[in-house]
Automatic annotation (TrEMBL):
<dbReference type="GO" id="GO:0005960">
    <property type="term" value="C:glycine cleavage complex"/>
</dbReference>
<dbReference type="InterPro" id="IPR002930">
    <property type="entry name" value="GCV_H"/>
</dbReference>
<comment type="function">
    <text>The glycine cleavage system catalyzes the degradation of glycine. The H protein shuttles the methylamine group of glycine from the P protein to the T protein.</text>
</comment>
<feature type="modified residue" description="N6-lipoyllysine">
    <location>
        <position position="63"/>
    </location>
</feature>
<dbReference type="GO" id="GO:0005829">
    <property type="term" value="C:cytosol"/>
</dbReference>
<dbReference type="InterPro" id="IPR000089">
    <property type="entry name" value="Biotin_lipoyl"/>
</dbReference>
<dbReference type="InterPro" id="IPR011053">
    <property type="entry name" value="Single_hybrid_motif"/>
</dbReference>
<protein>
    <recommendedName>
        <fullName>Glycine cleavage system H protein</fullName>
    </recommendedName>
</protein>
<comment type="subunit">
    <text>The glycine cleavage system is composed of four proteins: P, T, L and H.</text>
</comment>
<feature type="domain" description="Lipoyl-binding">
    <location>
        <begin position="22"/>
        <end position="104"/>
    </location>
</feature>
<dbReference type="GO" id="GO:0009249">
    <property type="term" value="P:protein lipoylation"/>
</dbReference>
<dbReference type="Pfam" id="PF01597">
    <property type="entry name" value="GCV_H"/>
</dbReference>
<dbReference type="InterPro" id="IPR017453">
    <property type="entry name" value="GCV_H_sub"/>
</dbReference>
<dbReference type="InterPro" id="IPR003016">
    <property type="entry name" value="2-oxoA_DH_lipoyl-BS"/>
</dbReference>
<dbReference type="GO" id="GO:0019464">
    <property type="term" value="P:glycine decarboxylation via glycine cleavage system"/>
</dbReference>
<keyword id="KW-0450">Lipoyl</keyword>
<dbReference type="InterPro" id="IPR033753">
    <property type="entry name" value="GCV_H/Fam206"/>
</dbReference>
Length: 125
């Protein structure tokens, strides 16, 4: 499985990348494999300020529906519009075109406290 070293990870299988105080969030390669074929992404939290680990949406696979948890506190700025028509991008490109949301991070230091790729890989193996 692929866990890019430049990203940080959560126990709930989300990844986060940070640029300034804006973060991009998605689900990991491990998570998309566990879920199977993703058929719908439902995120209606744009403009909302949420705490870390708050549910910001759901992802629906053929077999199940799973909540999406925010890695750090912040305000949701944008949802990936491509996922409306192509939710399968979460399966085929989870760290690229399959990203879920962009958020303004409340405290940038919180990102560094999340798991490294090495730690996350150990937690799922």
């Amino acid at each position: 499985m692929n866990f890019p070293a430049e990203l940080r990870y959560t126990k709930d299988h989300e990844w986060i990348s940070l640029e300034g105080n804006v973060a991009t969030v998605g689900i990991t390669d491990f998570a998309q494999r566990e879920l199977g074929d993703i058929v719908y992404v439902d995120i209606d939290s744009v403009g909302k300020s949420l705490e870390a680990e708050a549910v910001f949406g759901t992802v629906e696979a053929v077999k199940t529906v799973s909540d999406l948890f925010l890695p750090v506190a912040g305000k949701i700025l944008e949802v990936n519009p491509v996922l409306n028509d192509q939710p399968e991008l979460v399966n085929t490109d989870p760290y690229g075109q399959g990203w879920m949301v962009k958020l303004e991070v409340a405290n940038v230091a919180d990102v560094a406290a999340l798991m490294s790729a090495e730690d996350y890989s150990a937690s799922v193996s």
